[in-house]
């Protein structure tokens, strides 16, 4: 709940003058900033060892929710029917 999924544009560090790439990313919600520990730097190795699998799962779940929210009622019904019948991995699911 401390993060919010937002639309963003990123640029490759190897080609900073290159084009932007549209994406979605998570940002820390301002109302939870007081929960951040400003006494130490973020450590990617520690994060990878302790929280990465859970974070990847969260990202996948939220991405599925975001995709479902963008579907029309008919598209959502069709996706549900395909999943119930065991047909998954179609182009519409990506």
Strand content: 15-25%
Give the strand tally.
Answer: 2
Please state the overall shape, judged from the principal axes of the Cα atoms. Answer: extended
The span between the termini is 25 Å
Can you summarize the main beta sheet?
2 strands, antiparallel
Q: How many helices does DSSP assign?
A: 3
Order of helices and strands: EEHHH
In percent, how helical is the residue content? 25-40%
Overall average pLDDT: 83
Unreliable stretches covering 5 or more consecutive residues: 90-94
Strand order, largest beta sheet = 1-2
Coarse structural class:
alpha+beta
Rg of Cα set:
18 Å
Structural account:
With 94 residues, this protein is an alpha+beta fold. It is 39% helix and 17% strand. A two-stranded antiparallel ribbon has the order 1-2. The C terminus is likely disordered.
Task: Tell me the layout of helices and strands.
Elements: E1 3-10, E2 21-28, H1 44-50, H2 52-69, H3 73-84
Antiparallel strand pairs: 1-2
Brief descriptors of the model:
single chain; 94 residues; alpha+beta; two-stranded antiparallel sheet; extended; disordered C terminus
Structure summary:
By secondary structure, this protein is of the alpha+beta class. 39% of the residues lie in helices and 17% in strands. It contains 3 helices and 2 strands, in the order ββααα.
């Amino acid at each position: 709940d401390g993060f919010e999924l937002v639309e963003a544009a990123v640029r490759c560090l190897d080609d900073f003058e290159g084009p932007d790439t549209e994406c979605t990313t998570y940002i820390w919600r301002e109302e939870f900033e007081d929960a951040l520990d400003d006494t130490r730097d973020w450590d990617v190795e520690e994060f990878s060892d302790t929280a990465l699998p859970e974070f990847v799962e969260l990202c996948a779940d939220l991405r599925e929710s975001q995709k479902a929210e963008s579907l029309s009622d008919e598209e959502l019904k069709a996706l549900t029917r395909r999943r119930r019948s065991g047909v998954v991995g179609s182009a519409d699911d990506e």
